[in-house]
């Protein structure tokens, strides 16, 4: 199983869209794609909508990216985390480290409500 | 400029020097044992003293046949350790094991068989029993497959909590049983993740330590029996039959099918710590799942049988564990193995302590005789990594060695106090001649632990192995028919009393008495000196229908029924109140045994005994009433506990309090809820300061203070 990655840049930052499985075979290339983006210092969104499986090594890769981003003061958000991947990330504690798109959206909604 | 930590440091040992079986390899490092990810590859290291050759067997994950068999070149052997680094392996997608060749001569202890693929004793993950209860494919030659795993969990600032032993309130539970019941309403029932969802319940209960029944990889399907009534398969539910000592049980993880049980368990521990709850593991070093001469060959038997097991001169297995074999714990190699294992759980899983199953075996010599100064126990007591962990012995074994009070402690070891259990149970049911020993037990058993302090005594009334608290007051006899052993298994000396009917009844008087007896038990447990241990579910009257040996019952007999949290809210409230009370009264948690010394500021001794008349305890054989008053160093830390196991009421004369202080009522198990227990610090002042009528089979707890709201001794 391969992993395809595509970058999309906009004013507010970069979105990296991943498609496939993130495992020990594919996580090296994902890391190589993500680290330069972290170094750019702009907010980074990782879209996992088309990611079907994240293995133990894959989760570790995401956490390495998170630690690198934290060191560089860059915000990293995960988007489109499937129910299964979310469950695995939650049970193993990895989810605790990340902001996820859904949570960000909910927070924004809450803020709007409070403003009214 | 941001640095990145992903740049690799060049290392000489990142390059292969040899080729074996088409794989690039080099000599590995003998230490650490096991499979460790190194630059460019995986280093494998395994010990065997008598093997003539060793072969590393590698499988693609899940495949029945190996993808490679790599014999260790002779020059890769250091002493009796075979070590090799194999390059280019995808560590996440392989399983491995060993074939050890050598003599097969049981009389001299050797059982080498190169046809068998053996698990690595140091494997940190095991595949093969990934999801609980799934019928395994037994046609496979290699059942319990070693896997490589990274040890890079992100603990943040978590460390073991280091709660003083005397402040612990231990809660003994089973990972699966705690949330497997459908009523648990957790996302992943029966798993580490499920238990994590129940942390708020544990916190609210007030316990600060959970003791987990075995979590090392075991095979729940190794029990051949069926339920004689239903024909259902019986499991090895408790798991006291270890397959692999370094690997957490995959079947206890919601993510076990992905091989992420290590992370899931660590996340549970991290969150328990964040909630102020320590984690103690029940560990079983007295025997293994390999059984006797007829048992399976999994690991030790094929790698170095004569080193790892105690053998008779004829080469048979000594059986001090009652389960077939006995680990040769005081052999120098095995001592180090046990030490490495415990260090692994402390360093890599942040475990706070261990309870050692049948720990008396750990004090036996290579030929089985008890040692006066067992090197393993000493080693564990002084080890730098284990230095601040709790070490708790089940100080007996199935070979007849009973060391309660005599376990070699080295200033470190505590014990499950079986005598506490037996005495308090006997008193509760109303046996004659128990009052004197009761006094000794609730004062922290100074007869057993004079030089070790009260925290050497883990006080308990119930544990996984025996009746639950509800069954203790509902059954005179065990009812183990469902275990398929004609009710011959399990303990016969239970000191239980059914309160007038065997098993469930509609009789309101009997049910009220049972509730009262449970409260009495809890009240005595939490006001005794020593570390209290509560069996999970006892706070809500969990029943096993009279089965006192549910080792094989993976069903509602064993599972925590969460509907009981509402159904038995009265008992739960009482338990919470008692735990909270203990936290408020340092004197109950004092590490020093009381001596009778007078606390000058109050003019009362640290401990005093009373009967119907103040200062006049009745130690006669027919006495079933005893009251104890403890006086601490704080102004208001005076606690009076009257225990009446008699079937009649008694008028208690209360000891006088100095300086305007008066007695306030905290608990009276004879009173209807909610008046059975008060909020600590908000006890009600007694109307009649000098007297109290204690009801039949009741416990009354009073505190002496000047004012109900002043100066609490809050820990």
From TrEMBL, chain A:
<dbReference type="InterPro" id="IPR036513">
    <property type="entry name" value="STAS_dom_sf"/>
</dbReference>
<protein>
    <recommendedName>
        <fullName>Anti-sigma factor antagonist</fullName>
    </recommendedName>
</protein>
<dbReference type="Pfam" id="PF01740">
    <property type="entry name" value="STAS"/>
</dbReference>
<comment type="similarity">
    <text>Belongs to the anti-sigma-factor antagonist family.</text>
</comment>
<dbReference type="InterPro" id="IPR003658">
    <property type="entry name" value="Anti-sigma_ant"/>
</dbReference>
<feature type="domain" description="STAS">
    <location>
        <begin position="3"/>
        <end position="111"/>
    </location>
</feature>
<dbReference type="InterPro" id="IPR002645">
    <property type="entry name" value="STAS_dom"/>
</dbReference>
TrEMBL record, chain B:
<protein>
    <submittedName>
        <fullName>Glycogen operon protein GlgX homolog</fullName>
    </submittedName>
</protein>
<feature type="compositionally biased region" description="Low complexity">
    <location>
        <begin position="483"/>
        <end position="495"/>
    </location>
</feature>
<dbReference type="InterPro" id="IPR014756">
    <property type="entry name" value="Ig_E-set"/>
</dbReference>
<comment type="similarity">
    <text>Belongs to the glycosyl hydrolase 13 family.</text>
</comment>
<dbReference type="Pfam" id="PF02922">
    <property type="entry name" value="CBM_48"/>
</dbReference>
<dbReference type="InterPro" id="IPR006047">
    <property type="entry name" value="GH13_cat_dom"/>
</dbReference>
<feature type="region of interest" description="Disordered">
    <location>
        <begin position="480"/>
        <end position="508"/>
    </location>
</feature>
<keyword id="KW-0809">Transit peptide</keyword>
<dbReference type="InterPro" id="IPR048650">
    <property type="entry name" value="ISOA1-3-like_C"/>
</dbReference>
<dbReference type="Pfam" id="PF00128">
    <property type="entry name" value="Alpha-amylase"/>
</dbReference>
<dbReference type="InterPro" id="IPR013783">
    <property type="entry name" value="Ig-like_fold"/>
</dbReference>
<keyword id="KW-0378">Hydrolase</keyword>
<dbReference type="Pfam" id="PF21156">
    <property type="entry name" value="ISOA1-3_C"/>
</dbReference>
<dbReference type="InterPro" id="IPR017853">
    <property type="entry name" value="GH"/>
</dbReference>
<dbReference type="InterPro" id="IPR004193">
    <property type="entry name" value="Glyco_hydro_13_N"/>
</dbReference>
<dbReference type="InterPro" id="IPR013780">
    <property type="entry name" value="Glyco_hydro_b"/>
</dbReference>
<keyword id="KW-0326">Glycosidase</keyword>
<feature type="domain" description="Glycosyl hydrolase family 13 catalytic">
    <location>
        <begin position="172"/>
        <end position="582"/>
    </location>
</feature>
<dbReference type="InterPro" id="IPR011837">
    <property type="entry name" value="Glycogen_debranch_GlgX"/>
</dbReference>
